[in-house]
UniProtKB/TrEMBL annotation:
Record bears the keyword Plastid: no
Domain HTH asnC-type: 177-237
Record InterPro entries: AsnC-type_HTH_dom, Dimeric_a/b-barrel, Tscrpt_reg_AsnC-like, Tscrpt_reg_AsnC/Lrp_C, WH-like_DNA-bd_sf, WH_DNA-bd_sf
GO biological process: response to amino acid
GO cellular component labels: cytosol
UniProt-listed PANTHER family: LEUCINE-RESPONSIVE REGULATORY PROTEIN, TRANSCRIPTIONAL REGULATOR AZLB
Protein's recorded name: DNA-binding Lrp family transcriptional regulator
Pfam families associated with the record: AsnC_trans_reg (PF01037), HTH_AsnC-type (PF13404)
Alphabetized UniProt keyword annotations: DNA-binding, Transcription, Transcription regulation
Gene3D superfamilies: 3.30.70.920, Winged helix-like DNA-binding domain superfamily/Winged helix DNA-binding domain
Signal peptide: none
Gene Ontology MF terms in the entry: sequence-specific DNA binding
Length: 321
């Protein structure tokens, strides 16, 4: 794909390379990215500023729930179609929600909500909401992909990837959030590339303290940076939630296989009648059909499949809590 457009924004090869570079390290200095891509610092910074201003892409910080002592719950709401958009926006405003989506013909909303580990999902009031017809909550046990949507990251060569990939962090272990974290993380969730002087000014701590704490969170694996890009912009308008019921003996192998698929934007283990959740992104409905019938249909151990197309997003990533 040489280019793509959305709302007047055109993605050229350099834009795709830049997004791939940021996918590898969301806080990599533009000077390092520019050197690897063979362009000037100013060009790299200007191209990303253009994409961000157009709402086409942004870097955001995501706190590992296990590292913060929180649990994630996948919640499904049945709603009357006229209420879906307003309810989705209402849920998106909550600081503990992530990835608020409207499915199918607007009859269902799916979102992730975070809560302290050991506590039930914070859903008080939803069951009694006059515009909510039904509520299901299932624990999101584990994210089973190292990076979201590997299919989008194909613009760089192997040599360029090696030059930009940061040193691996540790395995996320529970880490107590302090006052600095509670001030810092929402700012980074809104702009993962915010410069240290700006971060220091926003949180009221010294620049050196902010730098040390951010490096500590990254080194521990508790904090990672991701690039939000609408798949439509990259030429993948067919997006679908897929719930899979997989035989327990095949769960790990099936998850590994799916996590390597270029069509998979997310793979996670969940509780409930289905034990795997997949977000698939495809170029069109024919490609989605082929993925469902040929790819999923060929996997041993898959006992049941439920699908629902994603029609809109009200929120993609929540500020860490």
């Amino acid at each position: 794909m040489d280019s793509a457009t959305l709302g007047g924004t055109s993605l050229g090869e350099l834009d795709l390379q830049l997004l791939h570079a940021l996918h590898l390290d969301g806080r990599a200095p533009f000077s390092r990215i520019a050197e690897v891509l063979g362009v000037s610092d100013r060009t790299a910074a200007r191209r990303f500023a253009r994409l961000r201003a157009a709402g086409a892409a942004r870097v955001t910080a995501v706190l590992d729930s296990r590292g913060s002592g929180h649990a994630e719950w996948l919640v499904r709401l049945r709603v009357p179609p006229p209420a879906a958009a307003d309810l989705a926006r209402e849920l998106a405003r909550r600081p503990d929600t992530a990835w608020v989506t409207v499915l199918s013909s607007g009859t269902e909303i799916v979102f992730i909500v975070r809560a302290p580990a050991g506590r039930a999902a914070p859903l008080a009031g939803l069951a009694r909401h006059p515009r909510i017809l039904g509520v299901e909550a299932h624990r999101l046990l584990r994210h089973l992909m190292e990076h979201r949507w590997p299919g989008r990251t194909s613009a760089l060569t192997g040599e360029q990837v090696a030059a930009l990939r940061p040193a691996p962090g540790g395995v996320a272990a529970p880490i107590a959030l302090n006052d600095l974290d509670r001030r810092l993380l929402p700012v980074l969730a809104a702009d993962g590339r915010a410069a240290y002087p700006r971060l220091a000014g926003r949180v009221g701590w010294s620049e050196s303290a902010v730098r040390r704490r951010l490096e500590e969170l990254r080194r521990s694996g508790a904090l990672r940076f991701d690039v939000e890009v609408d798949p439509v912009l990259l030429g993948f308008p067919a997006q679908c939630l897929i719930w899979l019921a997989v035989a327990p003996s095949r769960l790990a192998s099936t998850a590994r296989a799916l996590a390597a698929d270029p069509q998979a934007a997310f793979v996670g283990a969940v509780t409930g009648p289905h034990n795997l959740l997949v977000i698939a992104v495809c170029r069109d409905e024919d490609a989605l059909y082929a993925y469902l019938s040929d790819r999923l249909g060929s996997l041993d151990g898959v006992e049941r499949v439920e699908t629902a197309p994603i029609t809109s997003y009200a929120k993609r990533v929540a500020p860490p809590t």
